[in-house]
UniProtKB/TrEMBL annotation:
Domain FF: 248-302, 309-363, 365-430
GO cellular component, one term: endomembrane system
Protein name stated in the entry: RHG35 protein
Subcellular location: Cell projection; Cytoplasm; Endomembrane system
GO biological process, one term: regulation of cell size
Name of the gene this protein is made from: Arhgap35
Source species: Certhia brachydactyla (short-toed tree-creeper)
PG1 pseudoGTPase domain segment(s): 475-651
Amino acid sequence: AATKLASAEKLMYFCTDQLGLEQDFEQKQMPDGKLPVDGFLLCVDVSRGMNRNFDEQLKFVSNLYNQLAKTKKPVVVVLTKCDEGVERYIRDAHAFALGKKNLQVVETSARSNVNVELAFSTLVQLVDKSRGKAKIIPYFEALKQQSQQIAAAKDKYEWLVSRIVKSHHEAWPNVSRKMQPAPEYQDYVYLEGTQKAKKLFLQHVQRLKQEHIERRRKVYLSLLPQALDALVPDLDEIDHLSRAKAEKLLEAKPDFLKWFVVLEETPWDATSHVDNVDNDRIPFDLLETPAAEQLYEAHLEKLRNERKRAEMRRAFRENLESSPFVTPGKPWEEARSFIMNEDFYLWLEESVYMDIYGKHQKQLIDKAKEDFQELLLEYSELFYELELDAKPSKEKMGVIQEVLGEEQRFKALQKLQAERDALILKHIHFVYHPTKETCPSCGACVDARVEQLLGSRFIRPAEQQRQQHRNPLLDSNIDRINLVILGKDGLARELANEIRALCTNDDKYVIEGKMYELALRPIEGNVRLPVNAFQTPTFQPHGCLLCPYNSKESLSYVVESIEKSRECTVGRRDNHLAQLPLTLILVNKRGDAGGETLQSLIQQGQQIASKLQCVFLDPASAGIGYGRNINEKQIGQVLKGLLDAKRNLNLVVGSTSGLKEAASDADLRVVMCLMCGDPVSADEVLLPILQAQPCRPAAGG
């Protein structure tokens, strides 16, 4: 209770936390000489102490207050440790203060930093009356305000930490130096202290580390199914193995280290491997985690399901093959009820069965068509009495169907009547025009196959290299001219018929006294489709696309088709097709003999011809009669121009070699090998040719 103190070389402040560490804190001493005391804070501990009686403590405080009162100095009662305060102790302390005159009470908590400044500012106001009177706030209300202030400061501080700290490798000393100038850091440290600020930083770093580990875990787990598929794709290999044996099996695989890494230290998330983002190999000890075990079990289940689905597909195919209800052309809707059972629906979608059924139907239909073609060959006498134009009447078709109707091979196509009738018509066409092009076997035609094999087999190496770069347009020995006619809406076929009318009965045409065989290929569809290609295995265009048109639409079709054809041949060996001579022909449009439309078509045709650098023919200006598109003079000019263009190209083309037939038998049963010179029977040579073997290897033939 003394009011004058001696303060020589005494520190103004220290606490128990600073004992032994005094040099780490600010060394600020009190003034020298006498130090007057202006007021007193009378502190009362209202917490529950060990072996301490509060009534006796309060009696001591009362005696102490009596001593302080004698000094006539201001006194403020400070209730400390209110964060652990006992309600009765607080009431008794307030009752004690009420018994004294003008004795103010401030409820504080140094630990929570609640009302500490208020206690001092209250005393200062009592010492200096000029200051405004401080408003004393109860502890719990002050605590609420303090909590709100701390929460706001904490949010701002955490925002600051998240903005500055992006890696879990950051250290507190470096980060704290960066944050010191920031008001968010200063406010929070003032309210909660440096240790709590560091604690929040460490929590943030730990959270970043866990997030990084979780991302890596997801990467590893996402790769695990791929690794299992690559290393153990066979169910029989792992189905009955324990987990330990399965892991040993994985380690024994040649590609194990491509997918996994065995770490010297465990667990994997505590090693440096987790920070190596360039190495996505799966830590082998990750397989011991529940998530990896679930993926392994899922892999097993997937393999079992795949096996079961394969068994269902196989059983379904067998069901199709054995079912008498599945016939060529029968729709899925009709066959489903006869071939499906409940087990099928449990394992596969109906679309899968429909796909299998569609493939099976294709096999059935192809086999039925093949058998039906054999049937037609067996009944060849039915087709001998037809007219040469090979267009049977309805009565004749009825007779053919009646004769064949009892045959099972005929009945097999009863659900495909349109295709069956088409096969009959195609067969009739073949009977009267037996060529490679009309053969029912198409690409499997023996004539075409032998021709291809001979052409590719019996060529000298030096000449073969020359032929690879040879343009068929330059072959001076050609006696056949293959022309493509490109048109739309029947124009190509109509022009082809008119040209054939100018030829002899066997499609021969005389140019400059020499007879040429003229072959025409009218095309009226999409030239990118194989059926409409300029070149086929049996048709090699020698030049001159004749392109008739009679409208804007048909002219557009011609231009687009030529551009498509040139695009398709860019970079290919047969790119000579892109340089075939072109002739653009304006044909008569019935019902429109003149006028602006005709003039417009002529102008457009001339413009296109100039663009394509081709010949433009206007039959109307040439005096051609109504209904005619081209005359003999013009076709002669076109073909002569083709031959002249060929002659102008001064290229040397070697002759071909191969097998020449020796007509020693009426049925051409003997051929001669040009390399060894020996005559060989056709049976001896054709079989090795079809097998792509030389006829006499020993002789080099």
